[in-house]
C-alpha cells in the first residue's frame, strides 16, 4: 500500500521555521520538505508542536522566525485566497452550527473559488457531487452533521477539504476520537486521495496507524524534527524510547509488513 | 444571497431549501403588508379604521387624510426601517459573538448610543444636527465594550454571563443618562420620550439623516455574509478557506454600530428586537447566517410595525412606548433560549 519516497519534488517546505505563542517558543528553526503526492505522517508526544507546525504550514500561525515556502515562494507573499486554493487544512476540533447538512458543509469548500461577483456555479455543483462520491457519503448529503456517526462526520469534513480542490491537504489528527472501524474508513479515504495525486500531511497520534498508512514519517520532539523518512526505516525501539519514554519490541505486521509495537512497557527506572 | 441560484442540476435538498426560502420570504412580505395596512388604519386617536380607509383611498375627511398620510404613514415607514435595521444588527452581533443571546439592547449597544446622545445634547448640541453620528459612535463604544467583555475568560465562554455583563453595562449607562437628564432640564425635555424608544411623532425627514449609514451597513453586510457564514465553522477553518476572521468581525461590528446607532437615533433604544428576530429567522430558515440575515429584514420590520400598532391600541387613548411591547415579546424568548437544555451553537 505504501509507496517508497524517492527524491521527488516538494511544493511545501518549512525553512528554518520558528513558531511561538506569545513568548513561548513551540517550534524552533525547523526545516522540512513534504514529498509531493505522498502521505506524510507527523508523529510525536503530546505538546511536541505537531499541530502548531501544521497550522504554521497552512499560514494560520504567523512564523516567529524563518518561513514556509509554497511553490518556491514565501507563503506570506501569496494572497490569502491563493493559499486557500493550494492548501486545505482540517483542524482537530471542528464546530458546525446545529442543523448544518453535509452538502451545506461541503459547499463551504468552494469559497476560495468564489467571490462577491462569482457565486455558486455549475462547476461548483459538479465538484460538490464529486466530493460526495469520493468520500462515499452521497446518501448522507442532506442529513444534518449532528445526526451522523463520528466516522461519517469526519468524512464529511474531509469532503469539504476535497471540494477545495487543493493539491495539498493538511489533516490534524483526523482519526482522534474515532473507534477502530471508523479510523479505517478515514485512513482508507486518505490513501485514496493520495492515489489520486494529492499530497497529504497528517498529524497522527497512533504510531502503528502512522506506519501503516503513511509513505513518509516525520518524528517530532520538543518542536524539532528528530527523525524523517519511510516509516519502516524511521521507527526503531530507540526512537520510540526517545519520543514516548517507553520500551518496546518492534515486529512486522505479518500481512502488510509495516512495523508494529509489541510489549510496550515503561522502563524499569520510571516504574516505582 | 448565495443560498439560491445554482446553474447545475440541483439536488433535491437544495432545490427544497431554495423553494422554502422563497416561500418564507413571500409569507413574511405578505404578513408585513398586512401589518403596514393595520398601522395605517388603526390608532389611539379619533380616526377609526373605516374613515382611515376612506382617507387612505383619497376620500374621507381632511382629518382622516391628515392622520393617515402625515402621522401614521411616516411612523409606519420609520418602524419598517428601524425594525429591519435592528433585526439585521441582532443577527450580525449573534454571529460575531457566537452567542444566541447577543442582542444590541441587552449587551448595552443601544444604551451606549442613548448615552452618547444625552452627553452631546448636554454639551449643547441640538437634537436635529448631531443625533445620528453621535448615536452611532456611542453604539460603536457599546459594541466594543460588549466584545471586550466577550473576550474575558469566563464571561465570553458563557452566553448567559455575557448578557449579565451587558445588563450591568446597560444599567450603568441608563443611570448616567438619567443623571444627565436630572441635571439638565433642556436635555430632559428633548429626549425624555426618546429614551424609552418610540416611533411616534417622527417625520420622514428624520430618515434622510440615517439613510447613508444604513446603505453603508447594507453594503458591508452583503460583502461579509459569506465569510461570516464560514466563521460559524471556527476561525481556523474560515481562515483555511481564504477568509480573514479578524477583518470580518471588525466589519460586522462596524455594521452593527451603524445599524443600531441609526435606529436609536430615530426611535430611541428599542430592546429585544435583535434577539427575537434572529431567533425566529433561525427557527424558520435553518443555521446558515446568510438566510438568517435575509429573513431578519422582513421579520424585523414586521415585529416593530406590529409592536407599534399594538402599542397604540392597548391603553387608548394613550400610547405605550414601543420598547415596553418588544420587551413583553422578548422576555419569553429570552427565557426560552436560556432554558433550552443546551444553547444552540452558532
From TrEMBL, chain B:
Q: How does it sit in the membrane?
A: Multi-pass membrane protein
Q: Membrane-spanning residues where?
A: 73-93, 105-128, 162-183, 204-228, 248-281, 293-314, 320-338
Q: Name one GO molecular function term.
A: transmembrane transporter activity
The alphabetical list of record keywords is: Cell membrane, Membrane, Transmembrane, Transmembrane helix, Transport
InterPro entries for the chain? ABC_BtuC-like, ABC_transptr_permease_BtuC
GO CC annotation, single: plasma membrane
Q: Per its UniProt record, what SUPFAM superfamilies does this chain match?
A: ABC transporter involved in vitamin B12 uptake, BtuC
Q: Which Gene3D superfamilies match?
A: ABC transporter involved in vitamin B12 uptake, BtuC (1.10.3470.10)
- Predominant location category: membrane
Q: Where does it live in the cell?
A: Cell membrane
Q: Which Pfam families match?
A: FecCD
What GO biological process terms are annotated to this protein in UniProt? siderophore-iron import into cell
Give the matching PANTHER family.
FE(3+) DICITRATE TRANSPORT SYSTEM PERMEASE PROTEIN FECC-RELATED, FERRIC ENTEROBACTIN TRANSPORT SYSTEM PERMEASE PROTEIN
Q: Which family does it belong to?
A: Belongs to the binding-protein-dependent transport system permease family. FecCD subfamily.
Q: What is this protein called?
A: Putative siderophore transport system permease protein YfiZ
Gene that this polypeptide is encoded by: yfiZ_1
Amino acid at each position: 500500500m505504501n509507496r517508497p519516497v524517492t527524491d521527488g519534488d516538494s511544493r511545501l517546505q518549512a525553512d528554518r521555521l520558528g513558531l511561538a505563542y506569545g513568548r513561548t517558543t513551540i517550534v524552533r528553526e525547523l526545516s522540512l520538505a513534504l514529498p509531493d503526492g505522498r502521505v506524510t505522517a507527523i508523529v510525536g508526544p503530546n505538546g511536541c508542536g505537531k499541530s502548531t507546525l501544521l497550522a504554521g504550514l497552512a499560514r494560520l500561525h504567523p512564523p516567529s522566525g524563518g518561513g514556509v515556502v509554497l511553490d518556491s515562494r514565501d507563503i506570506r507573499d501569496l494572497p490569502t485566497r491563493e493559499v486557500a486554493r493550494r492548501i486545505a487544512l482540517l483542524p482537530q476540533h471542528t464546530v458546525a452550527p446545529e442543523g448544518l447538512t453535509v452538502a451545506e458543509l461541503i459547499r463551504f469548500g468552494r469559497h476560495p473559488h468564489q467571490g462577491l461577483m462569482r457565486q455558486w456555479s455549475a462547476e461548483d455543483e459538479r465538484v460538490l457531487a464529486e466530493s460526495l462520491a469520493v468520500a462515499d457519503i452521497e446518501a448522507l448529503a442532506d442529513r444534518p452533521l449532528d445526526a451522523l456517526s463520528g466516522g461519517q462526520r469526519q468524512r464529511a469534513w474531509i469532503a469539504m477539504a476535497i471540494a477545495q480542490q487543493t493539491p495539498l491537504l493538511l489533516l490534524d489528527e483526523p482519526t482522534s476520537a474515532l473507534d477502530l472501524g471508523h479510523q479505517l474508513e478515514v485512513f482508507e479515504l486518505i490513501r485514496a486521495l493520495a492515489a489520486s495525486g494529492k499530497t497529504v500531511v497528517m498529524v497522527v497520534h497512533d504510531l502503528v496507524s502512522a506506519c501503516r498508512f503513511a509513505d513518509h514519517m516525520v518524528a517530532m520532539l520538543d518542536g524539532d524534527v528528530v527523525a524523517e523518512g519511510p516509516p519502516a526505516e524511521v521507527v526503531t525501539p530507540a526512537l520510540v524510547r526517545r519520543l514516548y519514554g517507553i520500551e518496546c519490541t518492534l515486529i512486522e505486521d505479518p500481512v502488510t509488513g509495516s512495523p508494529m509495537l509489541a510489549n510496550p512497557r515503561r522502563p524499569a527506572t520510571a516504574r516505582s | 444571497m448565495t443560498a439560491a441560484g445554482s446553474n447545475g442540476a440541483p439536488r433535491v435538498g437544495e432545490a427544497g431549501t431554495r423553494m422554502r426560502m422563497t416561500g418564507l420570504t413571500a409569507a413574511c412580505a405578505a404578513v408585513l403588508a398586512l401589518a403596514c395596512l393595520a398601522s395605517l388604519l388603526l390608532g389611539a386617536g379619533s380616526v377609526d379604521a373605516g374613515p382611515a380607509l376612506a382617507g387612505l383611498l383619497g376620500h374621507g375627511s381632511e382629518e382622516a387624510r391628515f392622520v393617515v398620510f402625515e402621522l401614521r404613514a411616516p411612523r409606519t415607514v420609520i418602524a419598517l426601517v428601524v425594525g429591519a435595521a435592528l433585526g439585521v444588527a441582532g443577527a450580525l452581533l449573534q454571529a460575531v459573538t457566537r452567542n444566541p443571546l447577543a442582542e444590541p439592547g441587552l449587551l448595552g449597544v443601544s444604551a451606549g448610543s442613548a448615552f452618547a446622545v444625552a452627553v452631546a445634547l448636554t454639551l449643547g448640541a441640538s437634537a436635529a444636527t448631531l443625533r445620528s453620528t453621535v448615536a452611532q459612535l456611542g453604539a460603536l463604544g457599546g459594541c466594543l465594550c460588549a466584545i471586550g467583555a466577550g473576550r474575558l475568560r469566563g464571561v465570553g465562554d458563557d452566553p448567559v454571563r455575557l448578557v449579565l455583563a451587558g445588563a450591568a453595562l446597560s444599567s450603568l449607562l441608563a443611570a448616567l443618562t438619567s443623571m444627565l437628564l436630572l441635571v439638565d432640564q433642556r436635555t430632559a425635555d428633548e429626549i425624555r420620550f426618546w429614551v424609552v424608544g418610540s416611533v411616534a411623532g417622527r417625520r420622514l425627514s428624520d430618515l434622510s439623516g440615517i439613510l447613508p449609514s444604513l446603505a453603508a451597513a447594507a453594503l458591508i453586510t452583503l460583502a461579509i455574509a459569506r465569510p461570516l457564514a464560514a466563521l460559524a465553522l471556527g476561525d481556523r477553518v474560515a481562515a483555511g478557506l481564504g477568509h480573514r476572521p479578524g477583518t470580518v468581525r471588525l466589519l460586522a461590528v462596524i455594521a452593527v454600530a451603524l445599524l443600531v446607532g441609526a435606529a436609536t437615533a430615530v426611535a430611541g433604544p428599542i430592546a429585544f428586537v435583535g434577539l427575537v428576530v434572529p431567533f425566529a429567522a433561525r427557527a424558520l430558515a435553518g443555521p446558515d447566517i446568510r438566510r438568517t440575515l435575509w429573513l431578519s429584514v422582513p421579520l424585523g420590520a414586521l415585529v416593530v410595525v406590529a409592536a407599534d400598532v399594538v402599542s397604540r391600541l392597548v391603553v387608548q387613548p394613550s400610547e405605550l412606548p414601543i420598547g415596553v411591547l418588544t420587551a413583553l415579546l422578548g422576555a419569553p424568548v429570552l427565557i426560552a433560549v436560556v432554558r433550552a437544555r443546551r444553547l444552540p451553537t452558532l
